Automatic annotation (TrEMBL):
Family statement drawn from the similarity comment of this UniProt entry: Belongs to the thioredoxin family. DsbA subfamily.
Natural source organism: Paenibacillus forsythiae
Protein name: Protein-disulfide isomerase
Statement: the UniProt record of this protein carries the keyword Repeat: no
InterPro entries: Thioredoxin-like_fold, Thioredoxin-like_sf, Thioredoxin_domain
Record-linked PROSITE patterns: THIOREDOXIN_2
Keyword Cell wall biogenesis/degradation appears in the UniProt entry: no
Residue ranges of every copy of the Thioredoxin domain listed in the record: 41-241
Gene3D superfamilies linked: Glutaredoxin
GO MF term set: isomerase activity
Top-level lineage group: Bacteria
Transmembrane regions listed in the UniProt entry: 12-36
Keywords, alphabetical: Disulfide bond, Isomerase, Membrane, Oxidoreductase, Redox-active center, Signal, Transmembrane, Transmembrane helix
């Protein structure tokens, strides 16, 4: 009799195990849903709101570098034109800006030897495109404020492997750090994706000229093989010597 009862108890336990596991799955699902409702859903919404190049319509004609559309520093009659191709999420771009940009501006831009341009090569992720379009929106209001945006955004750069330059982040960042612009206009431009076509155009043009990463530099139309300060300096000095000028 006892053996029979033990056998029935074991059978009931075997049938009960799947039910216990199923219950645990339900509990975990409810807990996950609670977490998403409390915090993750907002983050998911931010990710879903990021732009894609495929969403941007319009015909892009690659027939020049379109210097006239790019933010710039320096004298328009400088003998050498330098373009920096960069992505705001790129750690190497941040390092170059923090380490070399001010020295480069002092040695070559302020002396009248170089006119220095910034061109988007937003390739890392979707928030690269958004950060670039924010820069374009600021540039349309003020060339000087654009360069302020460049320096300060690199100083506040997030992890390359994470989505950090969301619409929410950029709006707060600009509001807190960039004075002297029409913020309401900027906010509208960012939310409306007003300058995403310009970012995509920059990307297509850069790629057509051989840019495949960032930062990259072009000196009088010639793309440099590496991005070291020494290589950039050598290329500029060569152009200045060939043009018979050491500045104005």
């Amino acid at each position: 009799m006892k053996n029979s009862q033990d056998k029935k108890s074991k059978i009931r336990n075997l049938y009960a195990l799947p039910m216990v596991l199923a219950g645990l799955v339900v509990i975990l699902a409810v807990a996950l849903g609670f977490v998403l409702t409390r915090g993750g859903a907002g983050e998911a919404g931010e990710l879903n709101n990021l732009p894609n190049y495929t969403d941007v319509k319009g015909t892009i004609v690659v027939d020049s570098l379109k210097y006239e559309k790019q933010p710039r520093l320096g004298a328009p009659n400088a003998k050498v034109k330098v373009i920096e191709f960069a992505d705001f999420k790129c750690p190497a771009c941040r390092k170059w800006t923090q380490t070399n940009m001010q020295r480069f501006i002092k040695d070559y831009v302020d002396t009248g030897k170089v006119e220095y341009y910034f061109m988007n090569f937003a390739f890392i992720d979707r928030d690269s495109y958004l950060a670039a379009s924010a820069g374009e929106a600021i540039y349309r209001q003020s060339n000087g404020k654009f360069w302020e945006y460049v320096v300060k955004l690199y100083d506040n750069q997030g992890d390359e492997s994470e989505i950090w330059a969301t619409e929410k982040f950029i709006l707060k960042f600009v509001k807190d750090n960039i004075d002297g612009i029409d913020y309401a206009r900027f906010e509208q431009d960012l939310k409306s994706r007003t300058y995403m076509f310009d970012v995509k155009e920059d990307f297509k043009i850069a790629a057509a000229y051989g840019v495949n990463g960032a930062p990259k530099f072009m000196v009088n139309g010639a793309l440099l093989k590496d991005s070291s300060y020494g290589s950039l300096k050598a290329a500029i000095d060569k152009q200045l010597a060939e043009n018979g000028s050491q500045g104005n």
